[in-house]
Amino acid sequence: MKSEVKSRIWKQLFGFLVKLSGAAVLAAVLLAVPMVPASAAAPDIRKVQYEGKGKVDVDFSGKVSYKNVKVRVKDTDGKSYAAKILDRDSDDLEFKILNYKEGKTYRFKIYGIRAKGTSGYKNVLSRVKIPKPAENTVTKACALAIAKAHAQTSLNVKGSVFDVAVKKTLCKGIASWEVEFEGRINGVLYSFEYEISRSSGKILELEYEPEG
Question: What is the pLDDT of residues 1-35, one digit of tens each?
């Protein structure tokens, strides 16, 4: 009777060890299998900005890489335009549309790009509008006056401003004046940068920060 009990115990123990060994082998196999990154969608475009003279800047939401990258451009009528890539880095690509026409919207497709950490190079599609040139109804002096008045009344800038620079630029595709100067808030020196519409005098953007 005792020998039968012992035999039964040994059989149960042997079965348990076999199961345990099988689980360990399965775990080892799973660990040995390399993880292959899943194929993902094309990179996401965070912002497209027209920079003037046919130049378009494309800003991506994350890091990207390229392979035989190229850009194809068409207008809304389906006419194709040549494009030249000017610069590219891990999150940004700049290209120029050749022989463009102002006041038109262009669709563009970037070929040979992928988000970092994914497999397979994709194409991304977006559009950009090239505005017609605006008349300078707001003069350079007027733009500076608008920026100074805002800084003094809304930001509590005291005294005179200095190191003033005003130049034509584009802000979000809108013809504007870029106004830069320095001034003091509560005795602390700040630098200011305004973007003011050349057609309306509206403040489109404002950045300011303490110097040093």
Answer: 555 655 665 566 456 544 555 555 444 444 444 55
pTM score, whole prediction: 0.53
Q: How do residues 139-149 score in pLDDT, each as one tens digit?
A: 999 999 999 99
Q: Which fold has domain 140-210?
A: Nuclear Transport Factor 2; Chain: A, (3.10.450)
**In the Cβ-directed half-sphere of 101, how many Cα atoms lie within 13 Å?**
10
Distance CA 166, CA 143 (A): 8
The span from the CA of 58 to the CA of 88, in Å, is 9
Cβ atoms of 97 and 52 closer than 8 Å: no
CATH topology of domain 45-130: Immunoglobulin-like (2.60.40)
Confidence of residue 212 (pLDDT cuts 50, 70, 90): confident
Q: How far apart are CA 96 and CA 81, in angstroms?
A: 10
Instruction: Please report, as a single letter, which amino acid is at residue 119.
Output: S
- Between CA 176 and CA 133 the distance in angstroms is 11
The predicted structure's pLDDT at residue 172: 80
| Bridge partner residues of 73 (DSSP) | 81, 108
DSSP calls for 152-163: HHHS-EEEEEEE
